[in-house]
């Protein structure tokens, strides 16, 4: 059975409904919630399906499921369905620019997000991405804010206008982008390249890290450039959505 949780977001509860959702529309699933201690063949099957589809699985107390779907016989399992279907990375990149030559000619702009955990920041970044003309967004499956009602509201509905691909390993996806001809520019307060000095006139992927910790080490090491935003005032850093806006519009000047 399904229940509306908030505008544009649906919670599916019960073993058969969750299994069917994962089998038929895994690209719409944000996460799967399984009650701690729940066992049996149907639960094992759901976990295998979720693992095969590379979906986040959380083991939660029974009380959390009951708060999520009050009065519903959830049978120890629920799934949160996103309002916008995530894209397959290969399919999205193929539609943006099918081969290396097309990438070089079109000079697409991508946005990669590494562990953005606040849905409001996620939504604000999607809104900025659409305004700046970003061709596609890539996010990791784990430790990433959901594309839920809060994110959709902050994006002011623009999330429907940019494709979002979800990947199991962001650093591996970055290597794939390099093979396709993209340059990777990671935001870093200590980066040696200033946003104003960076050569943005190329196929580019802007990479933003988490609100408090920045880019993970492997993600940072995979970047071609680490780009900083010079701060003239006493502030130590910028909100990630503000920093993302500066970088994306700097990159969009040549497009």
Structural features:
single chain; 255 residues; alpha/beta; 7-stranded parallel beta sheet; 12 strands
Task: Write a structural description.
With 255 residues, this protein is α/β, with parallel strands linked by helices. It is 36% helix and 22% strand. It has ten helices and twelve strands. The strands form two sheets. Strands 8-7-6-11-9-12-10 form a seven-stranded parallel sheet, sandwiched between helices. A five-stranded mixed sheet has the order 1-2-5-3-4. Helix 6 runs parallel beside helix 10 (240-252). The protein is elongated and about 60 Å long. Mean pLDDT is 90; it is low at 2-8.
Q: Tell me the strand percentage band.
A: 15-25%
Distance separating the two termini: 47 Å
Rg estimate, integer Å: 19 Å
Provide the residue-averaged pLDDT: 90
Shape category: elongated
* Largest sheet geometry: 7 strands, parallel
Low-confidence stretches: 2-8
Numbering strands along the chain, what is their spatial order in the largest sheet? 8-7-6-11-9-12-10
The total strand number stands at: 12
Element string (H = helix, E = strand): EEHEHEHEHHEHEHEHEEEHEH
Number of helices: 10
The residue fraction in helices comes out at 25-40%
Structural class of the secondary structure composition? alpha/beta
């Amino acid at each position: 059975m399904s229940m509306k949780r908030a505008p544009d977001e649906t919670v599916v509860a019960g073993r058969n409904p969750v299994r069917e959702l994962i089998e038929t529309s895994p690209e719409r699933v944000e996460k799967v919630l399984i009650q701690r201690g729940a066992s049996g063949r149907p639960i094992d099957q759901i976990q295998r399906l979720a693992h095969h589809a590379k979906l986040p699985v959380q083991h939660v107390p029974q009380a959390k499921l009951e708060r999520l779907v009050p009065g519903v016989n959830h049978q120890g399992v629920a799934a949160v369905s996103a309002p916008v279907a995530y894209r397959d990375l290969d399919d999205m990149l193929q539609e943006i620019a099918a081969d290396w030559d097309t990438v070089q000619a079109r000079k697409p702009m991508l946005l990669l997000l590494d562990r953005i955990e606040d849905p409001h920041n996620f939504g604000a970044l999607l809104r900025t991405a659409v305004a700046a003309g970003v061709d596609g967004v890539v996010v990791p499956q784990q430790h990433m804010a959901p594309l839920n009602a809060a994110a959709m509201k902050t994006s002011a509905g623009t999330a429907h206008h940019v494709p979002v691909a979800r990947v199991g390993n962001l650093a591996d996806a970055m290597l794939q982008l390099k093979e396709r001809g993209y340059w990777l520019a990671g935001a870093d307060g200590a980066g040696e390249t200033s946003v104003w000095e960076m050569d943005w006139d190329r196929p580019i992927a802007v990479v933003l890290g988490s609100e408090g910790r920045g880019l993970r080490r492997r993600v940072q090491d995979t970047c071609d450039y680490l780009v900083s935003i010079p701060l003239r005032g006493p502030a130590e850093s910028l909100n990630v959505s503000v920093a993302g806006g500066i970088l994306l519009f700097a990159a969009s000047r040549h497009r």
